[in-house]
Amino acid sequence: MPVAGKRTTLQEYVASKWENKGQNLGLGAVIMAIADGSRKVQEQVQQASLADVLGTTEETNIQGEIVQRLDEASSNIFVEMLSQSGHVAAIGCEEIENPVIVEGNVADGFIVLMDPLDGSSNIDVAVSIGSIFGIWQKSPGETVNDASLLRKGNEQIAAAYVVYGSSTVLVLATKDNVCGFTLDVSTGSYAVTHPNITIPADCPYYSTNEGNSKVLDEPTKKAIGLLRDKYSQRYVGSLVADFHRNLLKGGIFAYPADINRKSGRLRLMYEANPLGFVAEQAGGAASTGYERILDITPTELHQRTPLILGNKDVVESTVSVISGS
Ligand code: AHG
Ligand code: MN
Ligand code: MN
Predict the structure, then answer these.
(1) Is the model's pLDDT at 64 over the cut of 90?
(2) What does the pLDDT read at residue 56?
(3) How far apart are CA 287 and CA 99, in angstroms?
(4) What pLDDT, on a 0 to 100 scale, did the predictor assign at position 4?
């Protein structure tokens, strides 16, 4: 157990949360694999040009986007750490077209969907970026295949994200709470710094790409206008950074459908579902503008979705204007 006065480490938190309870011990190993991988990514993020990890690979990923070298490096790091955890049966990743089915049919296999590096357009300009993870548990005895990854967001047993910002913070949401840990770079270990996160009742910020206003349909244009009239604009261009600020300070993030992108821009399985899970566990909400994100039945690994995410009352009022409900 942690020593009084000393901060609880992530390792201690994970052990005390699931030790002697038999279930989900493997989940602790998955969380530690994410933490260990994020430390490696953080080192590369901090070294950046010095470690020659910036710029593009000249390749285009399944999203049709130019792959940043750190996208690829982060993907490789987390696939390796998760595969080696001994408790992950399959991985879905933004940078990999098809699911990674991990060798060996692990008994309590977890299924991890991830955005290994979120905010790629900010990598080369030293602006906050992040990593996002949704965690599901396979059914006992299930032999996982590609379809095993297409699970509803409301079946997640945990979700986590890391924001590589002025500090490196890992936020872990489970069915009973949301907890934040800050990386002590001198020891390489995460310590509890934000126990029991809940979204504040007040909502000071709205986060949206105002450059898209001209391509919104009328109800959505009206909904964004109401946010603009009421709140201060904060938009980093890295979903994790915008969401983390809104989670701690209050705020709403909106990347709605537009006339060019009727399915939205962000990805359901490894952006909207995990952050929607975190938001709901912290007392917030996540919607497409028409339905709850976590209720969506996925059909494709990389499918996109509109995303309205943050303070529950503000999400609900925004959704009512967008959908006319
Ligand atoms: P990714 O780098 O994983 O592709 O995600 C980028 C996403 C998200 O982080 C951010 O909110 C959004 O792209 C910004 O989109 P715009 O540049 O269109 O505003
Ligand atoms: Mn992303
Ligand atoms: Mn990404």
Answers:
(1) no
(2) 80
(3) 26
(4) 55
The one-letter amino acid code at 278 reads: V
Q: Answer yes or no: is the C-beta of 237 below 6 A from any ligand 1 atom.
A: yes
**239 in contact with ligand 1, CB cutoff 6 A:** yes
- CA-nearest residue, atom 6 of ligand 1: 119
- How many Å apart are CA 28 and CA 18, to the nearest integer? 7
Chain centroid offset of residue 150 CA: 17
Q: How is residue 246 written in tokens? A: 């809104």
| CATH code linked to domain 205-323 | 3.40.190.80
Instruction: For the domain made up of 10-194, give the CATH fold.
Output: Fructose-1,6-Bisphosphatase; Chain A, domain 1 (3.30.540)
Return the percentage of the chain with pLDDT > 90, whole number: 82
Mean pLDDT of 237-255: 98
**Residue pointed to by tokens 């530690």:** 32
Kindly report the protein residue whose alpha carbon is nearest to atom 18 of ligand 1: 209
